[in-house]
Amino acid sequence: MRRKVLVIGHKNPDTDSICSAIAYANLKNQIAEDEHIPMRAGDISDETKFVLERFHVEAPDYIQDVGTQVKDIDIRRTEGVPDQISLKKAWNLMRDLNVATLPVTCQKRLDGLISVKDIATANMDIYDNRILSTAKTCYKNIIETLEGTMIVGDENDIVEEGKILIAASNPDTLETFIDPGDIIILSNRYESQLCAIEMNAGCIIVCTGAPVSITIRKLAKEKGCHIISTPYDTYIVSRLINQSTPICYFMRKDHLITFGTEDFTEDVKSVMAKVRHRDFPVLDLHGDYFGMISRRSLLDVQKKRIILVDHNEKSQAADGLETAEILEIIDHHRLGALETISPVFFRNQPVGCTATIVYQMYLENRIEIKPDIAGLLCSAIITDTLMFRSPTCTEEDRKAAETLAGIAGIQIREFAEELFHAGSNLKNKTPEEMLYQDFKTYSINGVSFAVGQNTFTNTEELRDAKGKLLTYLNTSFPRRDIDMLFIMLTNILDESTELLYYGEGAREVAESAMRVTANDDSLRLEGVVSRKKQLIPALMAILQES
Questions:
Q1: Phi and psi (nearest 5°) for 152?
Q2: How far apart are CA 161 and CA 131, in angstroms?
Q3: Quick check: is 277 in a domain?
Q4: Residue 1 has what pLDDT?
Q5: Distances (CA, A) of 427 to 50, 437, 438, 488
Q6: What percent of the chain has pLDDT over 70?
Q7: Given 88, 122, 385, 402, which is the most exposed site by the fewest CB atoms within 10 A?
Q8: Same domain, yes or no: 384 and 471
Q9: How many Å apart are CA 17 and CA 353, to the nearest integer?
Q10: CATH for 308
Q11: What does the DSSP assignment read for 51-104?
């Protein structure tokens, strides 16, 4: 069976992160046996939406946490049973399925649980001879339990009243014990059968398969008395009959501990450590019963298998990465603090875009690049290199983009204008949406900081965004897990950046790193357009010194 491998970019993904994940998953599906699925770790920007719609490619599904979930383990698909089946039938099912717990369901909804312990307790503790009427037992259950036959009456009728009696006395004495609705266990004695029916018994159970006369049948029918014939003798019937009680009378239905298919196994382990049940039911996304798990199920947990693209730092990765199995990393950024349990395939090249590396890998594996994939890769290179203006851009990026543009049937300059316009249209976005559109976090020397970047094609849009972001930072910014925040507002056409800063010491760090004095709540950075090559290294150098 093909195992799934998730190909995923960084949080707050940009176009390169999304497009490279899709393209690399497509490549791996053609050269590897496993099923590779592109995923995303954040919302898709308007720029990326434009690219996906232009080339008719579906957006990857969202995943917030790549930790192991219940759906990743072996869930026992035990079928649910109705709450009216007998204790004996439930016991037989458990024996045949080799399970200790049965889920009780109605229209896929979990109503309760019945366990071996519950059945054993019922068999040992039932001394109430009215248990069948108290539990509203169906005559069909009695017939199944006693392997009998309904001679008179409807097997779907319910035992509404009465107690269970064994007709061991003579008819004269028996008359004083029988009440209306009672269930009488007896043999082939005609006088006892007649007495029970005349005293308005609800049912007579004739043992050892003894024949029932036509007269008795006729009288029973007139009196509304059921007749059941069983091959068992009186002793066996008296032992078995209570086992026809429906399980709804004994099942656990309150305060059930359930897990969802999306729950994380670390949380499941914590709950199981506190509760000593043998089995636990699992519900699906709709709240319907799905299956059963036990502590043993957690012994063979299959970690999610992951390929990281466009990042190699834990702070930028989806949550739960420490519990996943990283298979590969394809990136073009600096090496970050990320540890793996075993060796992985790691390809890191000093180019302007991860998509360029993916393009090279298509060529190396001699896999044809379809127009839609070519369009995605070309778009990623254009955006990441700011149409070759970024200092991170290399000749490899330029050549790859030109070749891919030819395959996709686009003109780079005209297409780039549409692409950047889609990405810089922030009029309808909130300041929070603008901030996290392309947002990355870093850490050095115990200092955590984040850098967001927005690109613009005209000064008016940049100025409007700057005003909204400054107001947001000074009044509503809630983030408390970072020490400093920097926001790059980059004008692609004139190749400059307005750098906003937030946090104690952020202004001083920015001024020292960029060697520019702040003016009016920001730094004007001429010729600075690259976060990766021009801003991050400078900030890192200052923070490392301090």
A1: -135, 135
A2: 10
A3: no
A4: 65
A5: 16, 14, 16, 17
A6: 99
A7: 402
A8: no
A9: 9
A10: 3.90.1640.10
A11: HHHHTT-PPPEE-SB-S-BGGGS--B-PPPB-TTSBHHHHHHHHHHHT-SEEEE
Backbone angles phi, psi at 7, to 5 degrees: -105, 115
The number of distinct structural domains making up the chain is 3
Co-location of 138 and 225 in the same domain:
yes
pLDDT at position 90 is 96
Model confidence band, residue 106 (pLDDT cutoffs 50, 70, 90)? very high
Angle at 196 between CA 192 and CA 201, to 5 degrees: 155
pLDDT score for 30? 97
pLDDT, one tens digit per residue, over 230-259 is 999 999 999 999 999 999 999 999 999 999
Amino acid letter, 379: S
- Whole domain around residue 458: which residue ranges? 431-545
Where is the domain boundary, 363, 396, 423?
423
Mean pLDDT for the stretch of residues 60-73 = 92
Looking at the structure, tell me whether residues 337 and 367 fall in a common domain: yes
Last residue of a domain, one of 374, 397, 423: 423
In a domain, 515, yes or no: yes
217 and 137 together in one domain: yes
Averaged pLDDT, 507-527: 92
Residues 309 and 416 in one domain: yes
Any domain includes 255:
no
Alpha helices in 126-278 (DSSP H): 131-134, 139-146, 171-174, 190-198, 214-223, 234-240, 265-272
User: Tell me, what's the pLDDT at 434?
Assistant: 87
CA distance 138 to 141: 6
Q: How far is CA 512 from the centre of its chain?
A: 46
Closest CA to 532 of 451, 456, 459, 476: 451
- What value does the mean pLDDT take over residues 442-454? 90
The two structure tokens encoding residue 236: 């066996």
Q: Residue 281's pLDDT band (boundaries 50, 70, 90)?
A: very high
Report the distance separating Cα 81 and Cα 246, nearest Å. 11
Contact 407, 438 (CB under 8 A): no
Residue with tokens 């000749």: 395
Rounded-to-integer distance, Cα 540 and Cα 520, Å: 24
What span, in angstroms and rounded, lies between the C-alpha atoms of 110 and 286?
12
Sign of CA dihedral 82, 84, 87, 88: negative
